[in-house]
Amino acid sequence: MRDLHNLTRDEAYALIHADGGALEELFDAAAEVRRQRTGRIITYSRKVFIPLTNLCRDVCAYCTFVRTPGDPRAHTMTPEEVLAVAEAGRRAGCKEALFSLGERPELRYPEYQSWLTERGYQSTIDYLAAMCRLVFEETGLVPHANPGSMTLAEIQQLKAFSPSMGMMLESTSPRLLRPGQAHHACPDKVPAVRLHTLEAAGECGVPFTTGILIGIGETLDERVDALFAIQAVHERYGHIQEVIVQNFRAKADTRFAQWPEPEPLDLMRTAAVARLIFGLQVNVQIPPNLTPDHYGALLRSGINDWGGISPVTLDHINPEKAWPEVGRLKQVTELAGFELRERLSVYPEHLRENSTLWQAPSASRLGGLADAAGLVRREQECW
Ligand code: SF4
Question: Would you say the pTM of this structure is higher than 0.85?
């Protein structure tokens, strides 16, 4: 087997097209890097999903989450609703409260800005920071904020009660902003804006989850470019804890309802290339619920994490794709020869090595939940 640690860009451009024997070799090399990194352990985070608002100023072609004011399904959660969902998660053994929401809707909808102002908040991020604190103090869950693009000041504001955060880079292709493309009229999906968020998180020392969304009109080489863009930021700051390789799924009632979906093999090939680009440094995840019939096979691609799984709430971004039951996830993982372990929203290596993390008041709670390896203590795991 060739040593494919820390792949060069030219090698990655070649491997993202691999087929036949070369594809098998790619999977073997990716699996070997995972073996050296995390052995037989595959992780997931037991989380509750809190969709704080489904208003958004962007209009991504594949999105079924977003609503506009006036739509009866448009909703911004009140603090009482946030607490009720978080509390249900706590009772179900969750450790993480994942806040996922639309991006900067107040800049598009004056009525929503008024809603915030009447309650004493300047912006969605301001409201989110308050809700992270509320959940942290009232339920004991650890928030993980995922509000899209953020400035450095916003990340600083959030980090006290959201010790880790996330934002999918998705793609660095500017072509996707053109009319008819996935990110047309989406100011928060401008690649430079998202890369700036990754940089700002690095400057703040926040363990950060990001990733790419494949099959939305990018070329294979552009996938490689996006992965290397993440790698370049990580080399400067060392804060990227996880890279998600997410496959586009076509949804009814969207502009991309008829857009072709990537095949599982395409997803696996891309995840294997990601595994080799990041070498021993970063965790690589594929969400299992977006490939419900085949997800055990995805382990062949060198991934070491299944992401957040909620026992109490839908995947509000992909509501038609149910999370697997954790018991089933464990069974599938073990059948493939691995052990499933619960992790926290902050990955073990960042719990051990990220000194900035421990300045946040919320970090001490993570320390209390973790074992010596940085995973959830076995007596606190729920199956
Ligand atoms: S995918 Fe995210 S940014 Fe795009 S429209 Fe939906 S909520 Fe907004």
Answer: yes
